Each structure stands twice: as structure tokens, then as C-alpha cells.
């Protein structure tokens, strides 16, 4: 019999989709080092696996993740945080994954849990999903990219409101503000995310990676730099057998047979 902490992250493969399920139910999937290490390892393994075309991260029906593990952090000193390389060691892994990463969010996505969703490429939210960056209540700050990604996602006015007042958004508000990609009924969350991930995983992988890298340029940099990056990514598509196959298949009114998936 395993305790919760023996399996803080569970993985499974469905078709070409690699699923990662956060599994610390008693702590609402609070993100401690064990969870983040296991999440980082699972992401790296799926990113390197030729049989996987897209990755999906989920939690439980009650919580995607309730944030960084407050119990673990409460007595850390500044030096503890610096020495364990608190953020870089795993949150940078999420940035380095080149395949599309989907978040399937039900229940609480708070603090680091909301930041984890923000770090994913597509967020599918169940009706029950709740998003907040409540770190201010702890005299902390959303330090896993939250103060940077949230304003980019929903604009400064809404982001300041969430970060300074700890305002919690329900799924419909999060959808309206652009924090999530789609809202689905709770009972359909995994099935709908699987269908979307499987659809994406069926496309040409180098094309998916090029699109992801280009959209991230828009997210991260200037328009001029982003346009230049996008142009090179587009030109590189013409060196790809899949792009020629995709266009010819359209002209010949048949499904494409991509070589690189
Ligand atoms: N850390 C540790 N334990 C937690 C956390 C957490 N973030 N959230 C919940 N738990 C534990 C509770 O202590 C409780 O444990 P116990 O049963 O032993 O008392 C158990 O989970 C169930 O929680 P509740 O009884 O509180 O459940 P409720 O349904 O009443 O409330 C809430 C659910 C609203 C989600 C509530 O638990 C809550 O407010 N949690 C804290 C949310 C929060 O403040 N998150 C931000 C944390 S700070 C942060 O994320 C910093 C990010 C920057 C660095 C990121 C690096 C990873």
C-alpha cells in the first residue's frame, strides 16, 4: 500500500497523449519538491518519447493544485530557497518542453497551481475550476511566473486585481478574461482534453513545435523580434516533407500522411 507521498505524480499514455496526474489528494496537490521533481521528470520523459505528440497535466476533481506547499515552505530561510534553487530547478523544465502541453483543470488552481496552468499551452477548465493568486494573504508573491504571465494573459487591470486582492475567478470569468482556452462540464473534462490533445498529437510534430515556439515569442518578446522569428519558422516549414505532404493532401482532397509525428 502506497501513501500519497509515494506517488505524488502518476503517468499514463492514451494513444499519442502522455498524461500526468498530480496526486497528493490530502494536501489538494500542494506543490512540494517531490511533486515538482516528479512532474519535471515526467515532462522530460514524455518530451523525449517519440510515441508522444502532446502532454496533458491534470489534478483531482477538487484541486488541480492548491499552490506551493505552505507547510514545507513556512520555515525556509532565504538561503534555503537559494540553495535548493527553488524555482529554476523545475519551473524552467516546463518552459523547455517543446511539445504542446495542455492543462485539464478542475477545482482549485491557486498560487503555484494557477501558475502551473498559466505555464501550459492550452488550459481546458471544468465548470468547477477556480483560479486565484492568493499569495498576498501570506505576505508572499506569485513567484513561479505569476506576476509575469498573468498580466500577459488577462491584462494589467485584472492581473493587479487578482494579485493584490487575492480575487478568485470562476471558470466562466477565467474564460471571459482569457486565462483559459475552453470551459467544459466537469464530467467531460478528461475526455474532452484527451480528444483535443489527440487531435493536436496527430499533426506534424515539427510543425507543432514551430508554432508553439512562435506563439511563445509573441508572448515573451517584441513584435519586431517575434515577426522575424515567425518568418524564419515559416521558411523552415518549406524544408519539411510534412508541410509539402500537408499541402498536397489538401489539393488532392485526401487526409495527410505525416512522416514526423
Ligand atoms: N500547502 C500545503 N497544504 C495545503 C495547501 C497548500 N498550498 N492548500 C491546502 N492544503 C492542505 C490544508 O492544510 C488541509 O490539510 P489538513 O487536512 O491537514 O488540515 C488540506 O490541504 C485540505 O485543505 P482545506 O481544509 O483548507 O480545504 P478547503 O476545501 O477548506 O479549502 C482551499 C481549499 C481554498 C484551496 C484552501 O486549502 C487554501 O486556501 N489553500 C491555500 C491556497 C494558497 O494560499 N495557495 C498559495 C500558496 S503560496 C504559492 O503558491 C507560492 C507560489 C510561488 C512559488 C511556487 C513554487 C512551487
UniProtKB/TrEMBL annotation:
- Give the superkingdom in one word: Bacteria
Task: Establish whether keyword Lyase is in the entry.
Answer: yes
Keywords carried by this UniProt record: Lyase
Q: Which InterPro entries match?
A: ClpP/crotonase-like_dom_sf, Enoyl-CoA_hyd/isom_CS, Enoyl-CoA_hydra/iso, Enoyl-CoA_hydra_C
In its keyword annotation, does this UniProt entry include Lipoprotein? no
Which Pfam families does this UniProt record tie to the protein?
A: ECH_1 (PF00378)
Which SUPFAM superfamilies does this one have? ClpP/crotonase
User: Belongs to which family?
Assistant: Belongs to the enoyl-CoA hydratase/isomerase family.
Q: What is this protein called?
A: Enoyl-CoA hydratase-related protein
- Organism of this sequence: Comamonas nitrativorans
